[in-house]
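Worked example
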Amino acid sequence: MSSVLPATVGVIGLGRFGRLWASMLDDDFTVRAYDSDPVRRAEAQRHGLAPGSLRDTLASDAVFYCVPISAFEDTIKAHLPYFHELGGARTLIDVLSVKVHAREVFDRYLPATYQALLTHPMFGPDSVEASGLQGQTIVLDGYRMPPAALDAWSGYFESRGLVVVRMAADEHDRLAAASQGVTHFVGRTLERFGFAPTPIDTLGTRRLHDVTSQVSNDTWQLFVDLQTLNPHTKGMRLRLSEAQDSVFDLLLPNRVVTDRMVVGIQGGRGSFNEDAARYYMSRTPDVPCEIVYLHTTERVLRALHEGEIDRGVFAIHNSVGGMVGESVAAMARYRFAIVEEFAIKISHALMIAGAADF
C-alpha cells in the first residue's frame, strides 16, 4: 500500500452501493462507516460492516460520499460544522454518477485545507454480482489532489482489478449522458411500456430485458438525478425524441391509398370544415381526394399520427369566438407539420317555414 494513501477511510451512506464500496475498502483500510437511516445501518451489520458515529466517520483521513446525487449538497453542508470542529486536513471523495455537480458543490463548501477527488465507479452491486469487480471501470478527475496522491489512488484502484480512466468532469458528463443516461432512459421507458418476456424472445430482446431489469432495480431517485443533474442529459433526451419521431415518420405510408389523397376533417357532412377542405382540394383538381368526417380535431390529429389519413383540416380560430379551444388542446398532444393556414368566409342563413308565425 502506498504511503501516500490514508490509514483510515470513512464511508458516508450505506445503501446498496455504499455497502459494496465499504466492503471493498475494508480489505485494505481501517474503514469507518455511517448512515443516518437505522434500517440501512442494520442492513450493513448483516453484511458484516460495523457502522459507527458520524463524527468518528468524518474524522477519517479520507471520506467517501456514497449518498444520492440530489442529497450530496445538503449532506456536505450538514457536515461543515464537524469539519470545522475536527480541524486539520483530510480528503473528500465523491462517487456520484454526475461530476460537474459534485465539483460545483465542493467548490462552494470545501474547506481550503481539504483535498478532493472526483470519482465515478461505472458499476453497481448488480454488475459486480454478475461479473465480479475485475475489469470494471472507474473514472477519476484529480480536481483538488496533488499528483502523487492522485497516482496513489489510481494505483490502488488498479490493484483491485479496476480499469482507471482519468477524465475531466465536463467530458465525463458529456459522455455519460450519451451512454449511462441513454441506457437508464430507455430502460425506464421500456418498463413503463410494459416490456415483458415472451416464449420467442431473441438474444437482442433478452438483452433489452436485462437492461430494463437492471435500471429498474435502481431507485427512481437515482434515475431522476441522472436525468436532471447532468447538464448534458436534457439535450440527449431531446435528440432521442427527435430520432424516435424520425423513425416513426419513416414508417408512415406516403399515401394511405395510392390513387387518391385522404383528407380527414374536424366536422361532419355540410360543415364549414368540409367547405374548407373542398376549397383546399379545389386548387389541385388533378389530385383525386376523399373526405373522411372525423368530427373533432383530436380524432383528426390522432388519425394523422397513426397514418390513417394523408391530410387533416380543422379550425383554429374564428372572428367571433377567437381561438378554438378544442383544437388548441389537441395540438398540444400531437406532433404534426402545418402544410398551410388559410381563411374562408363563413355565411349563415336563417330559414323558416313559410307559414311560421312570429
Remarks:
- The chain has a mean pLDDT of 92.
- The longest helix spans residues 169-193.
- The longest strand covers residues 137-144.
